[in-house]
Write a structure and sequence with these properties.
α1 (11-25) runs parallel beside α2 (45-53) and α2 (45-53) runs parallel beside α3. The protein has helices at residues 11-25, 45-53, 72-81, 95-102, 109-120, 141-151, 177-191; strands spanning 29-33, 58-65, 85-88, 125-128, 131-132, 154-155, 158-159. The strands form two sheets. The protein has a five-stranded parallel sheet, covered by helices on one side. The chain has 192 residues and is α/β, with parallel strands linked by helices.
């Protein structure tokens, strides 16, 4: 049997330690909240953002999320707390492909898209940040860009990379960098 444990860091401790780092750096800083798991599970997330935003040297706070736990109330709380940007790991807009990419049948891409669109109407900037995996969602790149344009979001496409201990799908080779960059360049030309 696999043993798991959960460690939750106290919000006050996180803020105190970030303040120390910011003072040490002595310059403006950008904070990215990206946990080993889903950061929207962290109960005092809005409080953490609000307390970090109060630090004079912190200019932006970005949250990286898969979007599955977002709802309008949480988005409103995060916007009010001062969240600057939300990177949503939307890997496909097609429901079947999205479920395969997420790894289980419970993923609701319709809900994630709805919440990304809602967040884009708040003070939060939204960036759709898919990982492009050849043979799986390569054909979704243009659809994701179209959806981003439709809701007023940006995109930041990531190329799938093989990692020895990562979640590596079978029969997938990463897209060669020149090909990946060419696809991005083509989308940039077409959609600005």
């Amino acid at each position: 049997s696999k043993k798991t444990s959960e460690v939750v860091i106290e919000e006050d401790y996180l803020v105190t330690e970030v303040k120390k780092l910011v003072e040490f750096k002595g310059c403006e800083c950008n904070i990215i909240i990206n946990s080993q798991g889903e950061p929207t599970l962290y109960k005092p997330l809005a409080e953490l953002i609000q307390d970090l935003k109060a630090v004079a040297q912190i200019k932006t706070i970005t949250l990286i999320t898969n979007g599955t736990l977002l709802n309008e109330e949480l988005i409103d709380e995060l916007a009010a707390a001062g969240l600057t940007m939300m990177n949503v790991s939307l890997n496909a807009v097609d429901p079947k492909i999205a479920k395969v990419m997420e790894g289980h049948g419970l993923y609701d891409v319709g809900k994630v898209k709805k919440m990304a669109a809602y967040a884009a109407k708040t003070a939060i900037k939204v960036c759709l940040a898919p990982v492009i995996v050849g043979n799986y969602n390569e054909g979704e790149m243009e659809k994701i860009v179209q959806f981003a344009k439709e809701i007023g979001a940006t995109t930041a496409m990531q190329n799938y990379l093989y990692y020895k201990r990562g979640r590596n799908p079978r029969d997938v080779e990463q897209i060669q960098w020149p090909t990946f960059y060419q696809k991005l360049e083509d989308l940039e030309k077409k959609y600005g």
